[in-house]
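Input record (one chain):
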Amino acid sequence: MVLLFPLFSLISGLILANCSNATALKTLLSAVLTRVLIPIVIIYNMVYYREGSLSLVLLSLCTAIVLFALYALLYKDRVQALCFSYTNMAWLGFPIAIALFGPEASAPMIALYIGVSLFGNVWAVSAVSTETQPLGKIVKKVIQSPPVIALAIAGLLRLLQVQYLDQHQWIDAVYLFAKWAMSFSGMCVLGMWLRQTRIAWDDVWHSAKVAMLKLCCGMLICTLVYFYFPLTDLPHALGSLFLLFCLPPAANIVALENHYQGTGTSAKYIAAGTLVSCGVIVIYAAVLHML
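The corresponding structure, as predicted from the sequence alone:
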């Protein structure tokens, strides 16, 4: 069931893409996912905090910065560097992690998502904008982002000692619903988005080469983490970290590029990268199954 549900959700998205109100539905699902479901999952996991989460937040943030700097240094293209470093954790990362590792993957994935989200909110606009962003504007954007608001709510609930409540079945039920709804919405939006996107073979080949570079970086970083920064407190933390390097670029990069530069070249990188990532994730799942 855990493995088939994301596939069912993806197929549902491919079918729903043919509906007359598909665009409005995709927008609604995306908003509910990022502003409601993911914050609920973040709040729950932070209230019932697991040791090691903060380390993963900092690790994913630093990893995104390193990937961006590496690609920008090698190829001198900030938009492509952003596609290389800012990954689709919301629509694809959570559903795939739960399918691969089960519900216990929620805690490490939340921590990784927070780090990547902080990177996106702080750096994404600066990367695509031709003008220097005021520090106050960046700070305001970070504070108003759903993950940071969720963290603030979780901190308040911990101060109120909600984590020590004896009867919290209804809280567990809300969390369980949000987790499955998050998986469905993410994969459904992905299916709708892929159905409406046209990709050339050259774009796929380019994305495949970029994916190889990213996987090499992932193997190097995960090896260093394994030997020098053991993450023993969170189950599947290392596996979830490597999944970060299998994921495609974040879909909102093209919206930022279009707004600040008036172009949309990242759309083909995102679409082709998503297709390539799906293949990479299937291979990763097969390897995990054999281990």
